[in-house]
Amino acid sequence: MDVATQVLSEVRGQVLPVIRVAGPPGVRPEPLPEPLPEPLPDAAVGGARAAGELGLTRTEFARAVQLGIVRAGPPAPGGSARYARAELERIRSAEGFPEALRERVGTVAGAEAAGAVLGISPGRFTRLARCGHITPVGYRINRYRVVVWLYLAAELREFADREPGMLRGSAPPADRELLAAKADLRPRKWRGRHVGLLLRRTADPWERAAVLASVLPEEELREAVPDPAERIVLAALAPPAPYGHPQIPAAAAVAARLLRAEPADEVHWYRTSLDFALTGARGQSKSTGDRGPT
């Protein structure tokens, strides 16, 4: 019996489902991604060793795992991530390794560096990002407690090839409306990407529900999940903070705001998605006779 199941069984008895919802929040919902297949079991190594064998820094390796390029195997007894030799060999045998792998995970930080990749000014890049045309892949908090968004360099180059018209000329009417309303879609777009990547990692209905629950404000979560026993399970299965999330309390407080949905329609989307997920998870529990994740 795993930890979450044991915790639940001690509180009361019940469970939750895999679901299909409209899609991660953003300007337009898209279908939730399907979980990736599990890597083949094999001799496994820890993250530091795996990063070294792939010729990546710790940060590059963490990004590769986040993006689903490198898939973790079953965790070690202590809970730390392990990576199968077969999985590492799959990565090494890919065409263009290791340069192509490094290119896929390379990031730039802030509007100035990102704008340089696109050949545009920092101001124009900020407008494109705030209006939701470019999605951050991560963040860091600088010493002034300001959010610095990270972008995949490869995605920026793809954007330049795909949307050359966006790099020149005046802003389209929809963007002007967003800017006039002082909108900033970067946190929302990042959350949508983050949640989507986490959902791809698991097919377990309780774990998927926990991912969705982790984005809701506390008051919304209590309304959506009134059963304290179920909230215990969801908390036990909640994903950890993203790699690079600050540990210093002042910076962590700034970053914590990025992890929760804010606009009413975004909150509604996650709450509706969680309702579907819980329905499925509870249904699985009834059919198996167990409470908590399987």
Topology:
Blueprint: H1 3-11, E1 44-45, H2 47-53, H3 58-66, E2 83-84, H4 85-92, H5 99-105, E3 107-109, H6 110-118, H7 122-130, E4 138-141, E5 147-152, H8 153-162, H9 173-180, H10 186-200, H11 205-213, H12 218-224, H13 228-236, H14 249-256, H15 264-288
Antiparallel strand pairs: 1-2, 3-5, 4-5
Summarize the structure.
Helix content is 51%, strand content 6%. The chain is mostly helical.
**What integer value in Å does the Rg equal?**
20 Å
Strand residues, percent: 5-15%
Report how far apart the termini are. Answer: 9 Å
* Helical proportion, percent range: 40-55%
Structural class computed from helices and strand pairing: mainly alpha
Low-confidence parts? 3-27
Major beta sheet summary: 3 strands, antiparallel
Mean pLDDT over the residues? 88
Widest β-sheet, arrangement of strands: 3-5-4
Number of H/I helices = 15
Shape: globular
The overall strand count is 5
Order of helices and strands: HEHHEHHEHHEEHHHHHHHH
